[in-house]
Automatic annotation (TrEMBL):
The keyword Heme does not apply. Signal peptide: none annotated. This is Snf7 family. One of its GO terms (cellular component) is multivesicular body. It comes from Lasiosphaeris hirsuta. Belongs to the SNF7 family.
Length: 214
C-alpha cells in the first residue's frame, strides 16, 4: 500500500535553528529583490510626475505610484518581521552554543579534578617535609665545611717594616762575623743544613757558599 501511494518509511529530519535561519534568509533575499524592483518603478513614476502638468493623466499615474508605494511598505513590513525572527533564532543559537561549550568545560574540569585527586593521593606530605629537613641539614653541613676550608690561618697582617729591616741587617752582620771567624767558605748557621744519620759524607758546600756570596 505504501508503494501505491508513494509513501516512504523514512522519517523526515528534525528541523534545526540553522536550517530555519537559512530558509528565512532566503525569503528575505527574495523580498529584497522585489523591493529593488518596486523602488525602480517608483523612481520612474516620480520622474514622469515631475514633468507632467496637472490633469487626469497625472492623477492616474499618481494612483499607480501610490499602489506601488503601498506594496513596497507591505514588503518592508514582511522583511522587518522576518529579520526579527532571524535575530531571535540567532540569539537562541548563541545561547545553545554557549551552553554546549559550558558543558564541555564542566566535563573537562571534572576529569581534571578526578585526575588531580588520584595523583595527589599518592603524595605523602610527611615524607616531603622530612626530605626538606634532611636537605636543610645537608646544606648546613656543606656551609660549615666551606667555612672551615675558607678559614685563614693566624698570619700577622700588619708587619713592622722597621723590624724586618733590623732583622735583615742582623742576619747580614752574622754572615760577616762567621766569615771572619771561619773563613770565606764557611756558611752562616742559618744556611747550614743538618746532615741525616744515613749519609756517611756531608755534601759539598762550595756551591752554597758561592750562591750565598752571589
Amino acid at each position: 500500500m505504501n508503494r501505491l501511494f508513494g509513501s516512504s518509511g523514512a522519517k523526515a529530519p528534525k528541523p534545526t535553528l540553522n536550517g530555519a535561519i537559512s530558509n528565512i534568509d532566503t525569503r528575505i533575499s527574495s523580498i529584497d529583490v522585489k523591493l529593488a524592483s518596486l523602488n525602480a518603478e517608483l523612481t520612474g513614476y516620480q520622474t514622469k510626475l515631475a514633468k507632467m502638468r496637472d490633469g487626469p493623466g497625472k492623477t492616474a499615474l499618481k494612483q499607480k505610484a501610490l499602489k506601488v508605494l503601498q506594496r513596497r511598505k507591505q514588503y518592508e513590513a514582511q522583511r522587518d518581521q522576518l529579520q526579527s525572527q532571524v535575530w531571535n533564532m540567532e540569539q537562541a543559537q548563541t545561547m545553545q552554543d554557549n551552553l554546549k561549550n559550558t558543558m564541555v568545560t564542566i566535563d573537562a574540569l571534572k576529569s581534571t579534578n578526578k585526575a588531580l585527586r588520584k595523583e595527589y593521593g599518592k603524595v605523602d606530605i610527611d615524607k616531603i617535609e622530612r626530605l626538606q629537613d634532611e636537605m636543610a641539614d645537608l646544606l648546613d653541613v656543606g656551609n660549615e665545611i666551606q667555612e672551615s676550608l675558607a678559614r685563614s690561618y693566624d698570619v700577622p697582617e700588619d708587619v713592622d717594616e722597621a723590624e724586618l729591616d733590623a732583622e735583615l741587617e742582623a742576619l747580614g752582620q752574622e754572615v760577616e762575623f762567621e766569615r771572619e771567624m771561619g773563613g770565606s767558605e764557611a756558611l752562616p748557621s742559618f744556611m747550614q743544613d743538618e746532615v741525616p744519620d744515613f749519609i756517611d759524607e756531608a755534601p759539598s758546600t762550595a756551591g752554597k757558599v758561592k750562591e750565598a756570596a752571589g
